[in-house]
Structure formats: structure tokens, C-alpha cells
Amino acid sequence: TIVFFFFANNIPFRVIESSSFLRAIQLTKKVQSHKPHGRRTLSLTDLDKANAEANMWKSEVMNTNLEFGFALTGDGYKSKKKVKYNNYILLSVDCPLFLGLRDVTGEPGDGEAVFSEFAEVQAGLPPEVQDAIFLGITDTPSVNRKAWGLLMKKYTRQCLIGCMAQENSLLLNDIVKMPCTAHLHSLCSKLYKRVMNHGDCLSLFREKVAAHFDEKAKVPPHFVRSHLAIAGSTSTATGKRGKLQVHRALQARRHAHDVRV
User: Fold this and answer.
1) Gyration radius of the chain's alpha carbons
2) Between 199 and 231, whose confidence is greater?
3) pLDDT tens digit sequence for 104-143
4) How many other C-beta atoms are found inside a 10 Å radius of the C-beta of residue 18?
5) Which of 69, 73, 185, 221 lies 20 to 30 A from 200 at CA?
6) Which alpha helices (DSSP H) does 133-220 contain, by range?
């Protein structure tokens, strides 16, 4: 429907009264069932109707998945305007269900605040759905870990855990900060730039990779970057010597792969 078009694309409701939109609507008048709506109708009547339909659908999904249980996730982010939001999603076997977005700009971000917000979100769910939530997922700052204890005291059937994606992100950030990683990144970047700026060497690399995986494969530039480390990242040779080292490294990699197979 038109209200979902505006909502999903983050289009202000006032656009529906703009001259360009109205001109576009004129082209659809041959469709007898179409009737342009005013802003108030779109933002009130149509939006309320769409919201009621969405809530009905969410209730059906919740009731269908009660026997399997749910996981409740909470996460936050800051917009470009420095506005801080927390979003909550209920995970079911069938699909995720968006519960709401809360503006928490200026509010204390301590463990008690996180606990209160999670509890408030759950209080807005039907009792049978609350009882079926067995898992809570957040990222792992100390304030959230404190909230875990408070939540598990209140909801004794729930277990709170950290987000593995966030843990991996923190781990990778620590790895990137290591001197050896920075040195390897510098060497690989130099090799990448050298190969990308020498067409004959790049063609040789593409040819070898394509032959290794698929004779008709097309190798994108980012694939070249990620695989050049294998071709001898400490090489600084130019011209024929550089191409020869890349060629030999690729041959060695292909041979090692054939031996494993």
C-alpha cells in the first residue's frame, strides 16, 4: 500500500501534497481504483490501519511460535545527529519481530536503566509471550552485564548472553592494533597497489586465479587484494622479477592445494 511505500522509504508525509507527486498521480488516473490521499488521511487513518494490521500479524506469529520460545535482543546506536536509540527485536523460529525503537538521548546508560528498559519492553507483551522468552541477547559492556544479573533475578527462566558478532568485532579491533598486523597490512597494501598498477602482472594474477577456480570466473578487484598476501607480501621487486615472484607463489599455492586434494 502507499502508506508502506512512504514508511519503508522514510519519505515525509508532506510529500504526498507536493506538486511533483500530484503530477505523478495524474498519470495513474486510468486506474479507476486509485484515489490520491491527503496528508492527514495518510498519516492518521491509513497509518493506524496499517499499524493495526501489522500488530495483528505479529500476534499471529507469536501465538504460532509459543511452543518453541523466543529470544529478545536489544541494541543501541547513534544517528548522525547524535541522537541515541535503542531497538528491540523478538526472535522467533519463523522470523524476527520488531518491537520498537526508543529515544534514550541524555538518559543514564547504567545497568539499572538497561534493566528497566528491558523490563518495560517485556511488560508490553502478552503474559504467555513473556513466559516463552528464554533468552536475552545484548552486547557486552559492563553496564549490560550488570543488567543481566538484575534481569535474571526478575525473570528466572531467562538466560542473558552477549552478542557473538560484537565480541568478534572487538577481537578483530584488538588484532588490527597489533604491530605485526599493521606491518603485514602495510606490506600487502603496497603489493596490492603495485599489482593493480601493472596491467600485465594483474592479468597474470587474474589468469592464474581463474584457472584455479573456474576457467570462466571473473575476479573482482577486492578478491585480488585479499589473495595477494599469499603471493609473497614482502616482495618489493618490480618488472619481470616481481611478476616472476607472483607467478611462482601462485604455482606453489596451486601445487599445495592439489596435494591436499
Assistant:
1) 28
2) 199
3) 888 877 888 889 999 999 999 999 999 999 999 887 777 8
4) 11
5) 185
6) 142-154, 164-176, 179-196, 199-213
